């Protein structure tokens, strides 16, 4: 009997079918069909974490009451191998977002922003004692520079001047010394479109590994990393400040823009490095990584 079979049996469930979900994951992910204790058939996602990437389990333990309205988590196993069980939410937004008409994209973005605003307006007092506080560090700068250098060695279209584009804001603008100006809130930490689902007419988030106390603009600038249209980026930027005001989270225009720009540069550098890494691992085509790299370098330069 496998660990999964045993765990389901202890719940009074029976495993009918299991399918491996391939990808660049921090562990092993499976889509499973089960019969529950009431003899109902249902689909779930079972995730076993890699030994060095199981922080998400601890986060769920610390933030259970906070996360419940935002997640379809069913069960957490703290014993080895650490794992979680969640409802199968079907496809992440990233898989369908690109092909949608612009008006539908704006509707989805507004829905995501509204959902994040509920998270950001929670009283973080208890969470603040349980979670780290997020600051901009040199981690993504170093990874981004390393990835661009590797890309330059492999392809002629990769430009060495991109190294200076990444280096400049960290070196000359003191990105790593920046102190956030907006009120600190509970943040998801990784809500790009691959971690966001639209299911049963609601927005849901998965992968809370990087949850922390930080600027609410942290989540917005990460969400935008899977969006490649300037009109939509500007729409999200303009919309979210108004949404926060309705939730009585008032941030001055200058402070809002300052937090956004600093975090957007850092997270664009982070996602650029990750997209290049996915290309090196064979998950992305050369044509696509070229498009992504040129766009994100342009966004860093624009900020």
TrEMBL record:
Domain Aminoglycoside phosphotransferase residues, every copy: 106-229
Pfam families: APH
InterPro entries listed in its UniProt record: Aminoglycoside_PTrfase, Kinase-like_dom_sf
Full protein name: Phosphotransferase
Organism: Halobacillus amylolyticus
């Amino acid at each position: 009997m496998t660990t999964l079979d045993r765990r389901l049996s202890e719940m009074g469930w029976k495993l009918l079918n299991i399918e491996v979900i391939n990808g660049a994951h921090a562990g092993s992910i499976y889509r499973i069909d089960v019969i529950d204790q009431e003899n109902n058939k249902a689909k779930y996602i079972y995730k076993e974490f890699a030994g060095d990437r199981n922080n998400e389990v601890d986060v769920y333990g610390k933030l259970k009451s906070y996360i419940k309205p935002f997640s379809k988590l069913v069960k957490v196993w703290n014993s080895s191998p650490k794992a979680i069980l969640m409802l199968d939410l079907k496809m992440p937004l990233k898989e369908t977002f690109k092909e949608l008409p612009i008006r539908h994209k704006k509707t989805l973005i507004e829905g995501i922003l509204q959902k994040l605003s509920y998270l950001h307006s929670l009283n973080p007092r208890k969470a603040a004692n349980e979670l780290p506080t997020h600051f901009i560090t040199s981690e993504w700068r170093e990874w981004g520079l390393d990835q661009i250098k590797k890309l330059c060695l492999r392809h002629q279209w990769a430009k060495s001047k991109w190294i200076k584009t990444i280096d400049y804001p960290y070196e000359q603008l003191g990105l790593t010394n920046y102190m956030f100006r907006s009120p600190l809130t509970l943040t998801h930490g990784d809500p790009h479109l691959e971690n966001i689902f639209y299911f049963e007419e609601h927005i849901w988030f998965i992968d809370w590994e990087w949850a922390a106390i930080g600027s609410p603009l942290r989540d917005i600038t990460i969400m935008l990393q899977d969006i490649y249209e300037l009109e939509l980026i500007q729409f999200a930027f303009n919309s979210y400040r108004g949404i926060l005001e309705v939730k009585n989270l008032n941030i001055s225009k200058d402070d809002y823009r300052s937090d956004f720009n600093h975090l957007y540069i850092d997270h664009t550098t982070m996602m650029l490095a990750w997209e290049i890494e996915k290309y090196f691992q064979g998950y992305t085509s050369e044509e696509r990584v070229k498009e992504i790299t040129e766009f994100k370098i342009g966004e860093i330069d624009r900020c």
